[in-house]
Amino acid sequence: MSRFRFRGAALALLLAATAACQRGALQPTAQLTNTAQPMTAAQPADPKVEAVVAPYRLKVKQQMDEVIGHAPEAIRKNPGESPLANFAGDIQRERAARELGQGIDLGVMTNGGLRAELPAGNITTGSIFELMPFENELVVLDAPASVVQQLFNFAAPIHMAVSGATYTATPDGKPTDIRIGKEPFDPAKDRTYSIAISDYLASGGDKLEFFRPLPPRHTNVLLRTAFSDYVRQLTKEGKPVTAKAEGRVHF
């Protein structure tokens, strides 16, 4: 059973249990007795439980199987500049700008923050859940130049791209010729840069500890929702879903 199917079944069971509670079907007992039995793969399912769960499982499966877009080729993540991370970072900047009504300088997504690749062919709602299975929110950080420098210091040794910027990584892993929005970046300049990022990475996840002291501005949009909405909009416009490594990092 794939990770997605397991998650879908668990969600269906949770929905069923919730519905039962609301109907009053689940009542507390005065005393708990140890009636636990060992579970085996051969143990048959309880027909009564299956009858309750089945409609929810079907509903979840129908939702997850909905085709929302088409990719001519798989959008993958790889060491260095990643097509999938470029895809995610660009969507983050675009959606954060729309939600907050202002331009966003940078978008940050690490390969570790993306749990699966987008397949070639039909992209379903389930594909997006596989890509982003967590309830991560899109937030915006307002970072001083010193923190932005730390971001590129982190990115350069692994040739990680940053949406909205280009730079050169030296052989010893130092960032040079950093350009943000085509403007040269000066770490000594007294300026604040806006960064669209997940709340997980903003809190220091994936070794981005230098972001932790910065208070996030909330968009109240899940990353998963931002990705799904973007794919749906492309489909509405008759466009395929594509992304590529396009030389944001030079070395």
Automatic annotation (TrEMBL):
GO MF annotations in UniProt: hydrolase activity
Cleavable signal peptide: 1-25
Family annotation (InterPro entries): 5'-Nucleotdase_C, 5'-Nucleotdase_C_sf, 5_nucleotidase/apyrase
UniProt keyword list: Signal
5'-Nucleotidase C-terminal domain residues: 68-210
BP-aspect Gene Ontology terms: nucleotide catabolic process
Example of a GO cellular component annotation carried by this entry: outer membrane-bounded periplasmic space
Pfam family, one: 5_nucleotid_C
Recorded superkingdom: Bacteria
Cross-referenced PROSITE patterns: PROKAR_LIPOPROTEIN (PS51257)
Protein name: 5'-Nucleotidase C-terminal domain-containing protein
Classification of source organism: Bacteria, Pseudomonadati, Bacteroidota, Cytophagia, Cytophagales
